[in-house]
Amino acid sequence: MTSKNTTPARTQGGSALAQPIDFSPGRIAALLGLLVLGALVGGAGALAQGGWFPGGLLLALLGAAGAFHGGARLTGGRAGAVAPAVGWLVVVVLLTTSRPEGDLLFGAGLGSYLFLLGGMAAAVICATIGLPGQPPVSGARLGK
Description:
This protein is mainly alpha-helical. Helices cover 60% and strands 0% of the residues. The two termini are 27 Å apart.
């Protein structure tokens, strides 16, 4: 007699890297929405951090960290933190380049560097901290 393991792969123990990736249309739409949200937060943060130096910088970094952590909580995984981080990083890097006319959005000051490095640190922290997982589902009912 052989017994088949009928539990889904997600309920089995093991590394998160060994779990299958869910490519459902809803998940892809959520990740694309988070990518756009990260881009918007990056653009707004770039403007706010320079406009109101101490408060704007703190507001921009809190907004970025909130988007990264909220994305991870929304999707229940690290991809939810990486998607807004990629959008944020692309917009911020594009805004740091100078134009042929000499215009640039970021000045060479402490606030700009703190925004860039602080946002990247928040993205890395939110993407690497593991979310608390659910315990494996047992086939037996509790209390019986």
